[in-house]
Amino acid sequence: MTSTTVDTLPWGEVWGQDEAVAQLRAAASDPSQLAHAWLITGPPGSGRSTLAYAFAAALIAEPGDENAMRQVMARTHPDLAALRTEGVIISIKDARSLVERSYFSPSLGRYRVMVMEDADRMVERTSNVLLKALEEPPEQTVWILCAPSDADLLPTIRSRVRILRLREPDVADVARLIVQRTGVDEAIAEQSARLAQRHIGMAQRLATDSASRERRDRTLRGVLRVRGVGDAVEVAASIVQSATDDAKALTATRDEGEREALLRTLGVAPGGAVPPAVRSQVSALEDEQKRRATRSLRDGIDRVLTDLESLYRDTLMRQFGRDTDLINRELTSEIDAMAAAWTPQHTLTVLDAIALTRTNLQGNAAPALALESMLITVATGRPQ
Asked: Which of 8, 208, 222, 236 is 20 to 30 A distant from 123 in Cα terms?
């Protein structure tokens, strides 16, 4: 796959999606090709959001108006409304607010554009709030939804949008991009792109953070050692603790900065007591940060599940005689031993258990208990 060669705004940041760029450029310049609502789908790291904002910039700005395009890309243009939840789900309150803003006429640009980055995080009630806006949008309003798959949205939503599916880049393409962006060694870039399963953001993190690579390797090796209930409990606790520590590392600095900025805005001196009159605002920020931390933890555990899926996918390939395209090449000897010791049915049962664990976690199951159940299935080959 070739990377997009357009270096001018707004498409210069879009990488590896030439066909999608061509379709959206045509739609932005020709009203007859423009749908009132779009759904951009692709796996995590494929560039859904980057493409959505590039499209928004092309719709809002007059051709050649780079200042307006930069405003959109910076999320500051008055005719752009964007929603990206940092919680586990999109709240119905936030969805209603976005819908209300969709009925405003454009103030400066050609269109008003509504971007919802995490459309797959809507529950049914929230999706129903969006339906009417998609059915009868104002003439100059365009919706852009982003989700991993169109199957993640209700059929009633899917029937009201034009779906644009992004292509997955090859490992070699992602590795080249990581080298260009970070200057890391080509071997590290290839390994990171492979282990991240072509997720660009995760590949870049693995390539530039040796601790992340070591943590991933340690987690998989820990799961490989599970032989019974005691091991399952121990490893599950380790995974949850590791994901918790990782989430704290990602959010702690940001949380503190947000708190300091809010207190400064409210006129509270550094280290001073928070007056009763503004405690509700501080509490609201703390609640939002807790929701963000919960999502960060869930995302971290979900990433572990994705890594485990790759491990047992490799095992299944070995069991069916495939000797190439392993994701976890660094664990080849362990994978071969597991493939010899297990039946294919055992491996498939484990893969089903991982999928069920992901579903249970989305339903607010306790992470440690969900992982313990999954790991007991790993040890026994029997569903729990």
From this structure: 236
